[in-house]
């Protein structure tokens, strides 16, 4: 897996195929190789697929931890710059989708389109993680729950 130095981060990435670039950004703790079996295998015939290991995951090393979403976006933009990619389709899963959103906000000239899977509307990572953690704790203590409204106060145990 090749790498490129972005500041104090050694960013690992992989490439397959040729054509319009697609940058694949994994979720928390996942390596870019998560995309290989289905997505890259399907798209590499028509696209240049670039998968990245985010700071703190896969083979990427360096940089302060925990990073902000803006840090991760800057890292990925650095890979895009190092590979001299034209505007790319950017695909993210979970945290990767927040990174894709941040790339589009920081460098809209680098993003041709964005696919955001399992995303959230704000890059306020701490609040998102707190909500996620709280819902997991609730399920552990009280069993699965369903939503009866749009807020956590509308959640109740399943009957």
Automatic annotation (TrEMBL):
Pfam families: Abhydrolase_1. Keywords: Hydrolase. Transmembrane segments: none annotated. GO terms for biological process: glycerolipid catabolic process. One of its GO terms (molecular function) is triacylglycerol lipase activity. It comes from the Bacteria. SUPFAM superfamilies: alpha/beta-Hydrolases. This is Alpha/beta fold hydrolase. It comes from Pseudonocardia broussonetiae.
């Amino acid at each position: 897996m090749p790498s490129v130095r972005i500041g104090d981060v050694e960013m690992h990435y992989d490439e397959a195929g040729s054509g319009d670039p697609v940058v694949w950004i994994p979720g928390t703790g996942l390596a870019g190789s998560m995309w290989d079996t289905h997505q890259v295998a399907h798209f590499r015939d028509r696209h240049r697929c670039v998968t990245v290991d985010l700071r703190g995951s896969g083979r990427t090393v360096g940089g302060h931890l925990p990073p902000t979403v803006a840090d991760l976006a800057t890292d990925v933009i650095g890979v895009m710059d190092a590979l001299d990619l034209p505007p790319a389709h950017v695909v993210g899963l979970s945290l990767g989708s927040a990174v894709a959103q941040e790339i589009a906000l920081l460098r809209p000239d680098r993003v041709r389109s964005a696919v955001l899977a399992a995303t959230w509307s704000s890059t306020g990572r701490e609040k998102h993680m707190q909500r996620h953690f709280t819902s997991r704790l609730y399920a552990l203590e009280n069993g699965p729950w369903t939503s009866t409204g749009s807020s956590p106060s509308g959640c109740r145990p399943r009957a």
